[in-house]
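TL;DR need structure tokens for one chain.
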Amino acid sequence: MAAALLTAIFASLVGLATAIYLGLTWTNTGLLSQHITIGIFSTMITLLAHSMMMFYFIGKGKAVKDALPENAMTGDYYARIAAARKPVFSVATYAMIATIIAALLGASADTKVLPPIVHAMVAYGAIAFNLAAVRVEIDALRASNRVVDEVNRAIGAA
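>> reply
TL;DR here they are.
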């Protein structure tokens, strides 16, 4: 499941980067409609991927929390999972918000309500937030996988 989530996140980043490229070159190539289509689709994939990553961590935490009393185990396993997932919720939420705002400002730029540079700057910021979220999510996946492996070994040894 983690591999599928990371694949979706990386696909969304590629889509967002492609949308930015098309946005920078559409006047020379006439690809504005592709910029809009890829931008909207990539925004949706980004929102889905980050929110599914959050649900994944909620499920992992619940699984570990439930496994401890069921197997008469003690330890800081749940606290470690909670600490690992905590930064994901804030950074991924900021990434989603920045991506939504970039998309909305894109519509404003298309209708000439705002200058395109405003949309472009927010889009660059959204990419930066998404890259930060990916880094935090990968770190949290590694940490939670270590905890789950420890719990599984402890259950197997019991």
